[in-house]
TrEMBL record:
<dbReference type="InterPro" id="IPR004217">
    <property type="entry name" value="Tim10-like"/>
</dbReference>
<feature type="domain" description="Tim10-like">
    <location>
        <begin position="5"/>
        <end position="53"/>
    </location>
</feature>
<comment type="similarity">
    <text>Belongs to the small Tim family.</text>
</comment>
<keyword id="KW-0496">Mitochondrion</keyword>
<keyword id="KW-0813">Transport</keyword>
<keyword id="KW-0653">Protein transport</keyword>
<comment type="function">
    <text>Mitochondrial intermembrane chaperone that participates in the import and insertion of some multi-pass transmembrane proteins into the mitochondrial inner membrane. Also required for the transfer of beta-barrel precursors from the TOM complex to the sorting and assembly machinery (SAM complex) of the outer membrane. Acts as a chaperone-like protein that protects the hydrophobic precursors from aggregation and guide them through the mitochondrial intermembrane space.</text>
</comment>
<keyword id="KW-0811">Translocation</keyword>
<keyword id="KW-1015">Disulfide bond</keyword>
<keyword id="KW-0999">Mitochondrion inner membrane</keyword>
<dbReference type="Pfam" id="PF02953">
    <property type="entry name" value="zf-Tim10_DDP"/>
</dbReference>
<keyword id="KW-0472">Membrane</keyword>
<comment type="subunit">
    <text>Heterohexamer.</text>
</comment>
<dbReference type="InterPro" id="IPR035427">
    <property type="entry name" value="Tim10-like_dom_sf"/>
</dbReference>
<dbReference type="GO" id="GO:0005743">
    <property type="term" value="C:mitochondrial inner membrane"/>
</dbReference>
<protein>
    <recommendedName>
        <fullName>Mitochondrial import inner membrane translocase subunit</fullName>
    </recommendedName>
</protein>
<dbReference type="GO" id="GO:0015031">
    <property type="term" value="P:protein transport"/>
</dbReference>
Amino acid sequence: RFFFQVHHFMELCWDKCVEKPGNRLDSRTENCLSSCVNRFIDTTLAITSRFAQIVQKGG
């Protein structure tokens, strides 16, 4: 399930950031992909941290 979610996320970032695939990424596309990935990582860490807090409290 985790790998499915990562794959789905990568498709979303790709669709959002890549207008036309080529041999290289231009700086705009590279920045967009980097920001998209960073948002995903930040969100995942926040959710994981919150889940750990709930588990520790016995909820």
